[in-house]
Amino acid sequence: MARDADPLALDGMPLMPATNAAIWFAADGYDPSKKGINGRRVAGESFLRGFFSHGDVEEFVSLAHSQSDHEAFAGLARAAGVTQPLRSVRLDAPRALAPVEHYPAPIAATECWRRAQHGAAAWALCGVTHTTATRNVMQTLFDLRSAPQMPWDAVICTSRAVQASVRRLMELAEAHLTTRFPGAMLPGRPLLPVIPLGVDCTALQPDPALGHALRDRIGAAPGDLVAVSIARLTADEKFDPLPLFLAMEQAATDWRAEGGGKLHLVLCGQFSEPHWTETFATAAARLMPSCGYQVLDGADAAERKATLSGGDVFVFPVDNLQETFGLAPVEAMAAGLPVIVSDWDGMKDTVTPEVGFRVPTELPRAGLSAYASLRYLGGTDSYLQYLSQMSAMTPLDVGAMARALLVLARDPDLRARMGERAKERAQRLYDWSAVIPQMQALWGEQAAMLAHARKIGGPALTPRDQGTIPVGPAVEQMFAAYPSSFAAPDRRLCATAAAGVTPREALTLRNYAARRRLLEDAGRIEAILAAYSAAGPAGATEAEIAAATRLPVAVVGRAALWLMKYHYLKVPE
């Protein structure tokens, strides 16, 4: 394909179709079974499975630091039944990945700087929000506006609420930068589309046998109401259980007065710290003594399935800044459960009156919470302390939650209607078959913006010299005052008298392998030394050795410095 026929080609090389993206892969972002279950990893793994199943692409491309990560990506692809070709791209050689790189978090400024040496229009960056409450993420979004981020980059916001918070963070960053540097011209913000997280609705269909077994296990009679939740079991990072316990007991008391059955609460998850086990159990016994209480292991897929299969209603009273979307209620909707959630972040989008209830929430007014933010910013308080303090100032309407439970307890027909509508809504809007095309459409829009930018050109699009990245310059830029001199490319070097050990032995003695980084392959180093030896006492230049060995000049230059360090080479006398 000719270069002028493909505006998204680099160096004349045709690239993947414009609606595809290279997936920046590290196991930490996609493997909850090995790295620990949390929303970010569960969502990452689910996205990959969804992309493998529904991506309309000719190949799947991984971008990673290590071969082991490429192999892990390939393993997940094959396990998902992928038949398309797989291609891996190294992070230090990324030019073949264009037009879009998909990053599993808000775009890191380092990704902008890594691109800069190839030109700002070399490819587009696409990130996605998970939690935005951490100091690291807030710093990342600030740094993004001061890095070489471009308007064709995108940060997918998983809800309208998180889109508003990201936009506000960028407004504050821009206000600071333009005040600090009057007259500064900032590039356009990245695209901030709202695209929800997805689920595999088929995999979430209930299993009646598991559901009946669960109800038998907890002693739930046919006329009882079983409320279930799947969540990280911590009052710091997900939800304070006490308001839920209070609402359960209030609903149970009112229903019992009407001749109703018993209420049961099943929490499926993992306690992030051992002390939460006792805290939850003690509070449940004290605050909802007339209700059943059961905790299941959220790491067990069968227990998660049983939870969604045996429940009558799903409860998710989040009161935490950590949350941005709320994947678990969507999973419950896909399983056909009506939901009771807090009126909070992404659940404002996902839960409508046809499928459940949203419980009103509050945040402290201006002037009441800034101290907590500053204590967290300054390092006085940890992230968990910050979240805990803000949760303590985030009330949910306990009465409204109790009323919602009571309405659903009274009316099994309403539960069934809401559950069917929830299942239909999840399939229509949140199944990966509906979400992946939205992501591919975004990548196509980014690719079109890239193509236009390359046509009009401009200084902002030109590559930056690799050595002049301000947050990571080459050592000769930053440390010019350190050495006696710099290696001149045209100087001549010659071999010294035979050393006591070979270069290969010296590499072993020094144990460079302990850091898993060799300056150069031992065989190449020995070939370069042999070429210098063959040049005789007059020596040779790097270019001459490169011609003799058919190795790049830069390889010869680096190896020559190492050979000088261990006195295999010297400047001719």
What can you see in these coordinates?
With 573 residues, this protein is α/β, with parallel strands linked by helices. 45% of the residues lie in helices and 10% in strands. The chain contains 22 helices and 14 strands. It has helices spanning 32-35, 39-54, 67-79, 109-116, 135-146, 160-180, 208-218, 241-257, 275-287, 301-310, 327-334, 347-350, 370-378, 383-392, 398-410, 412-430, 432-456, 475-478, 503-510, 522-535, 542-549, 553-565, and strands at 22-24, 60-64, 86-90, 100-102, 124-128, 154-156, 225-230, 263-269, 292-297, 313-316, 339-342, 356-359, 494-495, 569-570. The strands form three sheets. It has a six-stranded parallel beta sheet, with helices on one face. α13 runs antiparallel to α14 (383-392). The radius of gyration is 29 Å and the shape is elongated.
Describe what is shown at a glance.
It is built from 22 helices and 14 strands. By secondary structure, the chain is α/β, with parallel strands linked by helices. It starts with 21 loop residues before the first strand and ends with a strand.
- Strands ordered across the widest β-sheet: 3-2-1-4-5-6
Overall 3D form: elongated
Q: Give the C-alpha Rg.
A: 29 Å
Q: Within the CATH hierarchy, at the fold level, what is the topology of the largest domain?
A: Rossmann fold
For the record, the CATH class of the largest domain is Alpha Beta
How many structurally independent domains?
3
Question: Topology of this protein?
Answer:
Elements (H helix, E strand, L loop, with lengths): L21 E3 L7 H4 L3 H16 L5 E5 L2 H13 L6 E5 L9 E3 L6 H8 L7 E5 L6 H12 L7 E3 L3 H21 L27 H11 L6 E6 L10 H17 L5 E7 L5 H13 L4 E6 L3 H10 L2 E4 L10 H8 L4 E4 L4 H4 L5 E4 L10 H9 L4 H10 L5 H13 L1 H19 L1 H25 L18 H4 L15 E2 L7 H8 L11 H14 L6 H8 L3 H13 L3 E2 L3
